Amino acid sequence: MSKSVTITYDFEQELKNQIAVLAPDFIFLLVDSNTHKLCLSKMESEYPVIEIPAGDDHKTIDNLASVWQFLSTHKATRHSLLINIGGGMVTDLGGFAASTFKRGIRYINVPTTLLGAVDAAVGGKTGINFNGLKNEVGVIHSSEAVILYPQFFRTLNHENLMSGWAEMIKHALLSSTKAWEEILSFQWTNVDYDALGKLVEQSIAVKEAIVEQDPTEKSIRKALNLGHTFGHAFESFSYSTARPLLHGYAVAFGLICELYLSHIKVGLPEIILHQAVQHIKQHYGAFSFEKTDYPVLLELMTHDKKNDASGINFTLLNEPGEIRINQHATREEIYDAFDFFLHIF
Ligand SMILES: NC(=O)c1ccc[n+]([C@@H]2O[C@H](COP(=O)([O-])OP(=O)(O)OC[C@H]3O[C@@H](n4cnc5c(N)ncnc54)[C@H](O)[C@@H]3O)[C@@H](O)[C@H]2O)c1
Ligand SMILES: O=C(O)C(=O)C[C@@H](O)[C@H](O)[C@H](O)COP(=O)(O)O
Ligand SMILES: [Zn+2]
C-alpha cells in the first residue's frame, strides 16, 4: 500500500476529499494542450485553467513564467492550491511554479502518464530544462498528494507506455532479482492489466522507499538516477537531432551504458547485461550517434547533478538490488560504454 499516492476509481470524489482537507482559498488547474483535451474534459470543474503546450521542449523558463503570471494576475495567495494534471512535464514545471510562487504554495499532482505515475509525480523533484540541459533549475518540494486515476492512461500511445516502462525497469533493477524477472516476463503483446497494475504499485513503492530514506539526494536517492547520467546526455543531445527522445527511451538507452559499466567495474553478471540489452532492443528500437559525438555527450554528462569535483558520478549495480552509488569512470571507460552501445545496435 502506497504512503503518498492514492489510487482511485472515482477521481472527482477523491479530488473533492483532498481539497476539503487542504481548504485552500483559490484553486488553479495546470494542464498541457493534450491533457486539457483528454483528461480535463472528463471532469466537471469551474476552477481557472492554465494551459501550457505539450512536450518536454516546453518545460522552459517561458512557460514557468506564464504560470507565475497567471497565478499573480488571478490573485493567487499563499493559501491557494495548484493542481497539476499531466505527465512529468506538467508535474515538474507545475511543482516548480508552486514551490516558488510567493515562496511556496501547495500543489497536488495528478499523473496522467505511466511515467508520471511510477516516477515523476512522486518524490518532490521539480524543475525545468535550461541552457540545453535536463532539469538544470529546480527545487525539491513535495506535493500535498498524488492522485492516480488509471482511467486517464487509456489514451496513452504505445511510445508513452514504453517511456514509463523504462522507469519501471530501473525500479526493478534497483529492487531485486525477483522484480527484474517479473519485468522480463511481462508480455506487452497481450497485456494483463491486473498484472500491470501490481507492477505499477510495486514500482511506486520502490521509489517511495528510497525517497523516504533520503529525500534531498545526499546519498541513496542517487540510486533513482540509475541510467540517467548517460540517459540525460542522450536526451539533451537528441534535441539537436531530427528525432528527439522521450525521457524513458533516453533512460532505457542510458541503462544499457550504465549496466555495461556495472559489468566491467563492479562485476554485474554478464547475463543481466545481456537480458537488459535484449529487452531494451526489443521494446525501444535503436538510437544512434557517431563516434565524433562522444566529446559532446561526455560534455553533457559533466553537468549531471550528482557530480562533484571528483568527476562524473554514476550509480552502478553489482546485482539487481545491490546498489553502488558514487562510482566514477575514466574517459576511456565511458567511451568504451559508447562503443558497446553502438556495437549492439
Ligand atoms: N520529478 C521526477 O522525479 C521525474 C521523474 C521522471 C521523469 N521526470 C520528468 O518527466 C518528464 C517526462 O514525463 P512524461 O513521460 O510523463 O512526459 P510528458 O508529460 O511530456 O507526457 C508525454 C506526452 O503524453 C501526453 N499525455 C499526457 N497524458 C496523457 C494521456 N492521459 N493520454 C494521452 N496523452 C497524454 C503529453 O501531453 C505529452 O505529449 C521529463 O521532463 C522528465 O525529466 C521527472
Ligand atoms: O526521483 C529521483 O531522484 C530521480 O532521479 C528520478 C528520475 O527518474 C527523474 O528523471 C529525475 O527527474 C532526474 O533527476 P535529476 O536530478 O537527474 O535531474
Ligand atoms: Zn527519469
Which molecules are bound besides the chains? Answer: nicotinamide-adenine-dinucleotide, the ligand O=C(O)C(=O)C[C@@H](O)[C@H](O)[C@H](O)COP(=O)(O)O, zinc ion
Write down the CATH topology of the largest domain: Dehydroquinate synthase-like, alpha domain
CATH class of the largest domain: Mainly Alpha
Average of the residue pLDDT scores: 97
CATH architecture of the largest domain: Up-down Bundle
Q: Helix- and strand-based class?
A: alpha/beta
Give unreliable regions as ranges.
none
CATH superfamily of the largest domain: Dehydroquinate synthase-like - alpha domain
Backbone CA Rg: 20 Å
Strand content of the residues, in percent?
5-15%
What is the total tally of β strands?
A: 10
Distance between the termini: 40 Å
Largest sheet: 6 strands, parallel
Could you spell the SSE succession in H and E letters?
Answer: EHEHEHEHEHEEEHHHHHHHEEH
The number of distinct structural domains comes to 2
Q: For the largest beta sheet, what order do the strands appear in spatially?
A: 1-8-5-4-2-3
Function: Catalyzes the conversion of 3-deoxy-D-arabino-heptulosonate 7-phosphate (DAHP) to dehydroquinate (DHQ).
Keywords: Amino-acid biosynthesis, Aromatic amino acid biosynthesis, Cobalt, Cytoplasm, Lyase, Metal-binding, NAD, Nucleotide-binding, Zinc
Domain 3-dehydroquinate synthase N-terminal: 50-161
Protein name: 3-dehydroquinate synthase
